[in-house]
Amino acid sequence: MSTDNDPMAEIRASFFIECEELLEALQDGLQIIEDGADDAETINIVFRAVHSIKGGAGAFGLEGLVRFAHRYETVLDEVRAGRLDVGPDALKVFFQAADHLSDLVRISREDAPLPTETTTELLGALDAFLGDNAGAEGEPDEDIDFQPMGLSFDLDLDDSGDDAADTELNLDDLPPPPAFDAYDEATAAEMTGGAYEITFIPGPELFDTGNEPALLLRNLQTLGDMTVRCNLFDLPPLTKLVPEIPHIGWTITLTTTVEENEIASIFEFVEGLCTLKISSVDARADDPPSSIADQIPVAALKKPSTDMPETIDPPQAAPPTAPEPTPIAATTNDKPAKQAASAPAKSVVRVDLDRIERLVNLVGELVINQAMLSQSLEKSGLSPHSDAISGLEDFQRLTRDIQDSVMMIRAQPVKSLFQRMSRIVRESSAAVGKDVRLQTVGEATEVDKTVIERLADPLTHMIRNAVDHGLERPDDRIAAGKEPQGKVRLSAAHRSGRVVIEIADDGAGINRARVLQIAIDKGLIPADASLSDTEIDNLLFLPGFSTAAVVSDLSGRGVGMDVVRTAIQALGGRITITSNPGEGTTFSISLPLTLAVLDGMVIEVAGETLVLPLNLVVETLTLKKGDVQMVRPGRNVIEVRSGFVPLFDLGEALGYRPPLEKFDGAVILLIAHEDESCAALVIDNIIDQRQVVIKGLDESFYRAPGIAAATILGDGQIALILDPSDIIAKAGTAVNMPNTVPAQGLSA
Amino acid sequence: MSLEILAVDDSRTMRDMIKLALLPAGFTVHTADDGVHGIEVLDGLEPDAIITDINMPRMDGFGFIDAVRDQDKYRSTPILVLTTEAAPELKQRARAAGATGWIVKPFDPAKLVKALQMVAG
Is A462 in contact with A488 (CB distance < 8 Å)? Predict the structure, then answer.
């Protein structure tokens, strides 16, 4: 695992990981409640999430976190106990509290100062639901340090009662024992040690709790010199003896150096289950000696006020401030369906990311090594039917399976990412005063962990954009005949070996006239440019473009869609826009599932070996004379099945050679984009199709348009991996748009 | 004195903390994630003592203690309840369910060891 040898630090780290899971469960639960599909178990899950965060936080002395979680938990407990209905208002506060809790977790992890203002504000909102009980629950003790007896909740319980004086075996009638922190320094014996006489008579239920008098006596013995006298006066004749019930009492004389409360603490667990009297022998000198038989049972740890041995009070209901947890009896058969569905979670092993990275790298090496082996076997001129070749095929299959398995290890559902976005929607919609509902689809879609992490920022920005720019204000929506509540739909799905994430709003759509005007005003395009709708939409990606007439808090922070696009491209992804006036805008992001390996087509252009992602390649063709038609100088198309596809000379586009004069006999790769548009790339030769290990190009390299990464081929040669969309965009816009457009404006 | 302990808690952090407290003391620690799992793990074990959390999915601490006590074999096995609250009625409920004692979270490792040694001998 980690090289860290401090087990506490390790547990702390894993606590924060657990917190993430709990926060996710909390969000899910609240979402289910919001959708109105909740049952008792959902409330329980929500409660437990907060409860567990509190419990763990206490162990690490994260006071602020404990404090907030405790109050949140108190309100949730009211819900759980059925004393509080969850209305829209409560739900809103619960969501905010959940968001704040996740902030506190993050801040606690970083050991940063906590935002007390927000906390106080939210605590007030939470307490409002408690009505008169607010604060009665109290707060955890200031002293969150390791003090098993330190958490006092100052419950002002005036429940008094007798202690096990009733002979009925009805445990429910037993009054609650006083809190064991009822004795404090004030009531503790002010003396250090001395001689004590202890009377201990187990009550009838003592055995039921698994307590054992012999052990108690043995523990007592560790405190000093002790003589024990056994009282057998309650012992029935053997025929009537019930072995489950204690019949023997003891009188112990103990000479010790410890204080009285330490003696009492030995009997802490049996308090209320026995008759116990601890008295200092020196003090007893003033008392008339009494026989055991008529000694009044006194609980040593009780406050004087609760010391009423002779009265038998009816059992009292718990005060309203005291939560009554509702246990889910294991034996009930009417469990909610959800509970049945919540089968035990699969067992999970936590593995350090470094180890996985190493495995990924090794698999990469294996793939490269296998490629080298294939190459050398091919060169050796073996028959395709030889054992070596068929063995190699098995080896290739195995390699691929291993690689897929390793990639699966790194894959995670996008759910956590989507949950973060639901928070962004909540916060940003509140900031601009719009009513927005986020719908998420395909949360279970799995993507490489790194991809998920690096998607967070661009997605956040796009969600904010959708809320801020995409959706109209409620009155405008009503005027347009729509529901006042705007919708943002966030979806993820696997599509042909990639993952496609879409952010769709049902807003007004892109105001193309305005976009065009802004672009012209800002000098991004010439005033006389004629652009197609798609091209206008793509202007949003230009650096320095912002449609926000008023720079709001949400967007216009100098982070534009160009930054979003750069981030997506850095992940090997592409982003496209579709927009219909009045109906909304959809941003579609297509990403590779993994950043490590790629199915590639190895090609040759002008003597250079290059790799093209195989998933882009639709088909390969060889050009014949007359296939190519020139639209205008420098702009050629070929006819492919009743459609014209623009032709790009890859060698020229990459600057390897001057443009080709003739295309006769050239090899063509037909590639398709996510947006279904096609392009034909002219290359010299196709060498192979194989898996290549992606080696990212360091930051120190110039990010050349069209070059996504590099790889090492089987013969040890380094080849660049192409991202043809860059090349096409560049070449395409160079034709379509006058040269005043900064070329790098449309390529990352 | 080495004891065999079963610790039932749905929080991984707590299970880790319990292990961290007990393993150095030479205890053998088995863990379970909730009451149902606890009963499964218990099968075939004869722990010297059991520690259980109260709030857990599928079967909570009270249900778990009930289920343990229902088996003759474990009628007198000491069971300590882990609770974040020292509220008397919680202790009372735990006791009514048959718990031997309680440990308030956050616990001090030394005290947990001591408490277990006290109830398990």
Answer: no
